[in-house]
Design a protein that fits this description.
The complex is a heterodimer of chains A (312) and B (424). The radius of gyration of chain A is 26 Å and the shape is flat. In chain A, helix 6 crosses helix 8 and helix 11 packs antiparallel against helix 14. Chain A contains 14 helices and 2 strands; from the N terminus they run H-H-E-E-H-H-H-H-H-H-H-H-H-H-H-H. Chain A has a two-stranded antiparallel ribbon. With 312 residues, chain A is mostly helical. By secondary structure, chain B is an alpha/beta fold. Helices cover 48% and strands 16% of the residues of chain B. Chain B has 17 helices and 14 strands. Chain B is globular and about 70 Å long. The chains are: A mainly alpha (312), B alpha/beta (424). At the A-B interface, helix 2 and helix 13 of A face helix 1, helix 3, helix 16 and helix 17 of B.
C-alpha cells in the first residue's frame, strides 16, 4: 500500500487534463445533484417506502402493511371513479388542445397575416393567468346568474338557467373548457417556434403543384411537426392526469357534486391531508398515478408514430 | 481515479457538514422551563383571521400581553388551517398555542399533540359548561374556548314589507314552515317577479344539519367513528330537509349563484336565512340590511341549532409552556375577552363577559346568546370532517329527489367508511 501511494503523493496537485475537467464538471453539477438527490430521489424513495406502510405523521410511526395500500385502490370504487374522471378529462382535453394549438399556430405562421405579434400576445395571455384566478373567473362566467347562462337564455336555447357548477353532468365539462382555453396558447407557442424553422421551399414547391392551404397543412405542416406533437401530447397527458388545483377550487376540495370532479390527484390530497392518518394510502395512489401516466404516455407516443422524441 | 474519488468524497463530506452546521446555527437557545420571568422569551401563536375586526382584536391582545410580560409574540396566520397545521405538527414545528375548532379537537387530542391545561390556566367555572366540555377528554381540559357563535334565523324586514307579510308571522317550527313557505314564496314572486327573491336559504353541510340528523336518537356517526348516514333514524330526519326543498322556496346559496347565506341575504336574494352571529356586523355595516333576528325553529317539538366554538390549544412539545399558559390565561381573562369580543362582534365564552358587555340588552345578540341553551356543539368524534366531505358530496341529489335519500346516504357512507377503514 505504502509503495503504491507514494508516487501519487508527489503528483497530488498535478491532475491530468481529463481529471481536472472531471472535477470541474462535478463541481458544477454538485448543486443540481444535491437538489435532485434531496428533493426528487429521496422524496420518491420516501414516498415509495410510505406506500407500503401505514403512516402516522404526528407520532412518526410506520407500520409495514405490504401491498395492502395498493390492493385497496382496487377494492373500493372511489379510486376507480377518480381514475375514470381523470381519464375522461384527459381523453377530451389532450386531443382538443393539441388540435387547436396546431391550428392557431399554423394560422399565425402565415406570412400574409397582419398584427401577428399582437395576436400572439393576446393568445398567450391565458397562459400567464394563474390557474387559481382563472378557476374563479370561470366559476363566475358559468355561474347560474353568469354571462354564459345569460347568453344562452338570451338566444332562447333554454329557459331556466343551468347551474353548471352544481350539477354533476356539467361540472367536469366546465373544467375541461377552462383547461383547454388556458393550455392551448402554451402549446401554440411550442408549435410556432418549430414552424419558424420550416423551410419555405416546401410550401413553395407545394404551391407550384397547386396545393390548397388545407393540403399544405395536412401534408407538410403536420408531418413536419410530428416530433413536436409527441412532446405536446406527452405534456398534455401528464398535465391532465395531474389536474388538481382547478378541481380543488371548483369543488372546495370535496370532489363533488356526486364525485363528478374527483380526480386522482385531488384524491391523493384528500387522503394525505384529510382528518385521517392515511398518508401511506395517498403515497400508494400517487405511485399508481405515476405508473398510469407512464403507460398512457408511452401509448400515445406509439400511436403518434415515428421515433417520438428521438426525432427532435 | 480511485484516489480522486476519495478526495472528492472527503470534500463533499466537509461541505455537507458545513451546511449542516450552518443550518444548526439558527436554532435559538432553549429557555429554562420553569421560569416565571418571560423577558426575552418568544411565544409563537397559530391563528386564522376571518375579518379585519379579528385582526385588530388579535393585535390588541398581542400588544397587551407583550407589555404585561415582556415576552415577544410571533403570529403565524394560517390560510388553510387543517392542512398547514398537520404539516407543522409532523415537522415538530407547530406553534406553542394555536386555534382549534371544536370539530377538530377530538382528532388533535387523539394524536397526543395537546397539552392538558391546569386549573390555574383555565378555571372551568368561569366558562359556559357546554364549551369547556367540548375541549375536555376524560376529566382533563385541553383547550380554552376563546369565543363562540350560534345560529339564528335572519329575516329581511324590507323584503317582508314589500311582500306584504309581517315578520312575526314566520313559523316557529319546521313543520309549520314547510306548510307556510309556498304561500310566502308566491307573495315574493308577486312582489319581485318569479324566483327573483327566494324565501329561505339553508346549507347542505353537516356543520348546519347535524342537530337535525341527531334528532330522536339519530347517530350519523357511530361510536367507533364509522359513517352511519343511511341508518333509518338519520334518513327520517333528513327527510325534513327534503320536504323543505320540495316547497320550491328553499335554496342553498349556491343554487342561486351566491357564495354564502350572508352574501345572498345582503344582496336581497333571500328573505330568510339560517346564519351565525358573525353575519350580524357584516349585515349591519357592509350591506346595511334592515333585519330582524329570530330564534331557531323547533323540529318535532324540540328547538335546536349549532354552536361553533374555537379554543386555544397548547402544543405538547412546546419549549415555553409556562409562557403559553400565561398567554391562555391572559386572553381568556374577563377584561381582555370583553375587549376582544367588542372588537370582533363574536360572542364570549364566559357568562360574566356577556353580562359585562351588556350583550343581553341587544335583542338580536341576545337571541344568539340564548341559542347556547338549546344548541349542539359542532363536534362528533375524530371522523367528522371525513364524513362531512362525503355527506356534502352526495346530499344534493338526494334532497332534490334525483336519488332516494337512503340510496344517496348509502353511497356517502361507503365513501366515508372507505377512508376511515384505511386509517384503522
Amino acid at each position: 500500500m505504502e509503495a503504491q501511494t507514494n508516487p501519487s503523493k508527489k503528483r497530488r496537485f498535478h491532475l491530468t487534463r481529463g481529471q481536472a475537467e472531471a472535477v470541474q464538471g462535478y463541481a458544477f453539477l454538485l448543486p443540481a445533484i444535491i437538489i435532485v438527490l434531496v428533493f426528487f430521489l429521496a422524496a420518491i424513495a420516501f414516498a415509495l417506502y410510505m406506500s407500503f406502510n401505514k403512516v402516522n405523521m404526528y407520532s412518526q410511526t410506520y407500520t409495514f402493511r405490504g401491498l395492502k395500500n395498493y390492493t385497496n385502490i382496487f377494492t373500493d370504487g372511489i379510486a376507480l371513479t377518480a381514475l375514470k374522471n381523470t381519464a375522461l378529462f384527459s381523453l377530451v382535453v389532450v386531443p382538443t388542445q393539441t388540435f387547436f394549438a396546431l391550428l392557431i399556430a399554423y394560422a399565425l405562421s402565415n406570412k400574409s397575416i397582419k398584427f401577428k405579434k399582437l395576436f400572439r400576445l393576446i393568445y398567450f395571455l391565458p397562459t400567464l393567468t394563474s390557474s387559481a384566478a382563472l378557476t374563479l373567473i370561470f366559476m363566475f362566467i358559468f355561474n347560474i346568474n353568469g354571462p354564459v347562462n345569460g347568453f344562452f337564455t338570451g338566444l332562447g336555447l333554454y329557459h331556466d338557467p343551468i347551474n353548471f357548477l352544481q350539477q354533476p353532468e356539467y361540472a367536469l365539462k366546465v373544467i375541461m373548457v377552462m383547461n383547454i382555453w388556458s393550455t392551448v396558447p402554451n402549446f401554440m407557442t411550442v408549435y410556432l417556434a418549430s414552424l419558424v424553422d420550416l423551410p419555405d421551399s416546401l410550401y413553395e414547391a407545394a404551391d407550384m403543384d397547386g396545393a390548397s392551404s388545407w393540403q399544405k397543412l395536412l401534408n407538410i405542416t403536420v408531418p413536419y411537426l410530428r416530433p413536436i406533437t409527441t412532446y405536446v401530447l406527452l405534456m398534455g397527458i401528464i398535465g391532465t392526469f395531474q389536474m388538481f388545483d382547478q378541481a380543488y377550487i371548483f369543488s372546495n376540495g370535496s370532489g363533488g357534486p356526486d364525485n363528478s370532479t374527483l380526480t386522482v390527484a385531488l384524491m391523493v390530497y384528500q387522503y394525505a391531508f384529510g382528518q385521517m392518518n392515511t398518508m401511506g394510502y395517498a403515497c400508494a395512489l400517487a405511485i399508481f398515478l405515476a405508473i398510469v401516466i407512464y403507460i398512457v404516455a408511452r401509448l400515445a407516443e406509439k400511436l403518434n408514430g415515428g421515433n417520438g422524441l428521438k426525432d427532435m | 481515479m480511485k484516489k480522486m474519488h476519495k478526495r472528492f468524497m472527503a470534500l463533499a463530506t466537509v461541505a455537507v457538514a458545513a451546511l449542516a452546521l450552518a443550518a444548526c446555527g439558527n436554532k435559538s437557545n432553549s429557555s429554562s422551563s420553569n421560569s416565571t420571568d418571560f423577558k426575552g422569551q418568544n411565544l409563537k401563536i397559530g391563528i386564522w383571521l376571518g375579518s379585519d375586526q379579528e385582526k385588530k382584536g388579535m393585535s390588541d391582545m398581542v400588544k397587551g400581553f407583550e407589555k404585561k410580560t415582556g415576552a415577544k409574540v410571533t403570529e403565524k396566520v394560517y390560510t388553510d388551517f387543517n392542512t398547514q397545521i398537520q404539516a407543522d405538527l409532523a415537522g415538530h414545528r407547530a406553534p406553542d398555542v394555536w386555534y382549534m375548532d371544536s370539530s377538530m379537537y377530538p382528532f388533535f387530542q387523539k394524536q397526543g399533540v395537546l397539552q392538558a391545561l391546569d386549573k390555574n390556566t383555565i378555571n372551568t367555572d368561569n366558562f359556559y359548561p357546554t364549551l369547556t366540555k367540548a375541549f375536555s377528554t376524560k376529566g382533563k381540559v385541553y383547550g380554552a374556548p376563546k369565543d363562540t357563535s350560534t345560529l339564528a334565523i335572519y329575516a329581511n324586514n324590507d323584503i317582508f314589507k314589500k311582500a306584504g307579510v309581517d315578520v312575526s308571522s314566520v313559523p316557529k317550527t319546521y313543520e309549520d314552515l314547510i306548510k307556510w313557505l309556498p304561500g310566502f314564496q308566491a307573495k315574493l314572486d308577486a312582489a319581485y317577479g318569479k324566483n327573483k327573491v327566494k324565501a329561505w336559504s339553508y346549507n347542505q353541510d353537516l356543520a348546519r344539519n347535524l342537530y337535525i340528523l341527531q334528532h330522536n336518537g339519530g347517530t350519523p356517526i357511530k361510536a367507533n367513528g364509522d359513517a352511519n348516514l343511511a341508518s333509518d333514524a338519520v334518513v327520517k330526519n333528513l327527510d325534513m330537509y327534503k320536504q323543505l326543498v320540495a316547497t320550491g322556496a328553499a335554496v342553498t346559496p349556491k343554487d342561486i349563484g351566491q357564495g354564502d347565506n350572508g352574501t345572498a341575504f345582503g344582496a336581497g336574494k333571500v328573505a330568510l336565512m339560517e346564519e351565525g352571529n358573525w353575519t350580524y356586523q357584516v349585515q349591519k355595516k357592509q350591506y346595511k340590511t334592515n333585519f330582524t333576528v329570530l330564534p331557531m325553529l323547533s323540529y318535532e317539538g324540540k328547538q335546536g341549532g349549532m354552536i361553533f366554538t374555537v379554543g386555544w390549544g397548547e402544543y405538547a412539545n412546546s419549549k415555553v409552556k409556562p409562557l403559553a399558559n400565561a398567554w391562555i390565561k391572559y386572553v381568556t381573562s374577563k377584561n381582555v375577552m370583553k375587549k376582544y369580543i367588542e372588537t370582533t362582534g363574536t360572542l364570549p365564552s364566559r357568562p360574566d363577559v356577556a353580562k359585562a358587555a351588556k350583550l343581553t340588552a341587544n335583542a338580536a345578540l341576545n337571541v344568539h346568546l340564548n341559542a347556547n341553551k338549546y344548541s349542539t356543539v359542532w363536534q362528533d368524534g375524530t371522523t367528522l370532517v371525513t364524513v362531512n366531505t362525503s355527506y356534502q358530496n352526495f346530499v344534493a341529489k338526494a334532497l332534490t329527489g334525483q336519488t332516494a335519500l337512503k340510496a344517496a346516504m348509502t353511497q356517502a357512507d361507503k365513501q366515508a367508511n372507505a377512508a376511515i377503514s384505511k386509517s384503522k
